[in-house]
Amino acid sequence: MNRRMFLKNLAVGVAALSLKGCHLPSQKAPVPVRSLKGSRPNIVLIMTDDQGYGQLGCQGHPWLNTPNIDALCKQSTAFLDFHVSPTCSPTRAALMTGNVPFKNGVTHTGGARARLALSAVTLPQLLKEQGYTTGIFGKWHLGCDREEYLPGSRGFDEVFIHGYGGIGQPEDVPGNKYMDPIIRHNDKFVQTKGFCTDVFFTQSLGWIKRNKDKPFFAYIATNAPHGPFIAPPENRKRFIEMGMSRGQPGFYGMIENIDENVGRLMAYLKEWDLERDTLVVFMSDNGFILAGTGIGKIGNKDGEPIFAYNAGLKGGKKTVHEGGTRVPAFFRWKGVLKEGVECKALAAHIDILPTLIEFAGGDLPENLDGKSLLTLLENPDADWSDRNLFFHVGRWADRIGPDKSKYDKKAGFAVRNSHYLLVNNEELYDILNDPGETRNLYAQKPEVVQAMQTSYDQWWDEVRPFMINENA
Question: What is the rounded CA–CA span in Å between residue 295 and residue 363?
Answer without folding.
Answer: 50
